[in-house]
Amino acid sequence: MNPELPDAKLNKLVSIQTLALSAIAIAVVLRLVNLGSREFWYDEVLSLLLVTGQKSGYQTPGDVPVALAPYLSVFTIPVESGFGAVISSVKNLLLRLLGGEPHPPLFYLSQHFWLRLFGNSEAAMRSLNTLFSIGVIASAYSLGKVFLGHRSGLLLAAFLGLNPFYLFHSLNVRMYAPLVLWTTLSASALLHLIEQPTTPKSENTRRYQLLWNILLIGSIAAGLLTFYFYIYLVIALAVIALYLDRRHWWQNGLRLGAGVILTTPWIFWGAIKQYRSADLKRFGVIKDSGSAIFIHLQDTAKTLASNLVLGDWITSLPEISIVIVGCLAIAFIIFSSLKLRQQGEQRKLTVALILGLLPLLLALVLDIATKKSTLNFGGGRTMIIILPGCLLLLTLWLEKAISTQWRTLIASCLLLLYLTIGVSDYSLRKRSVFHSIAAIATQQAQQPTLIAMNSKAWGHVLRLAYYTPPTASVMLLAQHPAKLANSLEKVLQDEPNKYSRVLWLDSENPVWSKIKNPADKEREQQKIQQILSKQFELKQTQNLTGTMSLDNFTVKVYNRPANS
Q: For the whole model, what pTM was predicted?
């Protein structure tokens, strides 16, 4: 008599549907409890600046100390009187987007009106994206259901809900959470229109077709107005439409084209201006053609690693580890594709591969043609549109290539892996650096304190202002690393008795004007120490680390001697 298989025992305890529903519930709870668990990271505070329409009110600190409290005004919408003032604020927001911001306006507009209702706290600002991400879970169910059935819809929703990369971006004031919503909605709507045609004489059919047509056209327009790389997904949808329903190519073409046409006012008025003012140099140019293929393959592996497995952990892990995980993800895609082909699932396999990999391949080809490295820019988030398609492939593999005896066990292990990575990210990797700096700066609230920071980056300056109490007696001297010593020396000479304390913030990644030579960097640090030691005593040294190098600082607290 054969012993009972592990999955048979597991099925007696829990069905795969119950497992998926439990995972979905956990995914929602994780989002709600972590809304305010981390302080804003660099890009989030820039989003807040753009959302208020107050970018023009931000002034980069000069060569003399500035008060932090006045910077708080850029985090709020100015007091308005009447509807005309509201329109003026929205206009200012759109105009600010034309001055170097590379993204379309829909995300910023939606956050702008959300801020009006709920304020600018971390939880308030992130709550809209959290709602979008819950909508993604629902639309992922719809996509999986029309593709494979009810159980597959639940599995796809569970995978996407617990995916560590999407969990991070669901709690991030950037445009990637709604971008995945438009991706899943458009794919689901297209497949509903293609896969479930019904008699045209039925009134319910007309309503059904109208609903999915509106969702398809609207989500395509919204996607393009959220992120320009969404065009890769539109191309993938067009290929799917031709592959599945070539006979009705022109109807599907009209649907897709209508979504694109809705965006043309912004494209001609805003996108062209954005392109002319965009800083395209931030995308790395690959000069050595010999290493180009290696770099592109490495970017591909890292993109798949971040999207499918590691999530935001990629900002802390060694590059070689990320590449290895990416290669394993590629190996799984190849293996699962071969297994599904053996099972005779070529049609559904092709759809999943087009949705999950074609946008990635299009971006890769463009990178090769332009000799740039954009694919893994931002840790793979620019390619987050591939995530639903890749997880659809995973769901298809579980349903069609895995035997019933093992399906629940394997699904449980995969969901547990995602849950472990996501929970460990938020429990082991704290981001409270600027809270800590503010606490140190206000330890002696009545003592005049100077913060000397080797960075003028607005993400650093703005977070200092956001988290430092406005009533604290704190001034900021923000300067490029190579100039901080001279500026600090001049400030202390001009007003030798003004400050009782100095906080020297040494940023690991000052963003602008880094000192590349380690010897020069050490020389500048020694010079600052000598300048401060003339009037102050070193009382405290503390290393503060966040989830990325932008958040890492060494804080040195200098106090003026009591007898001076």
A: 0.92
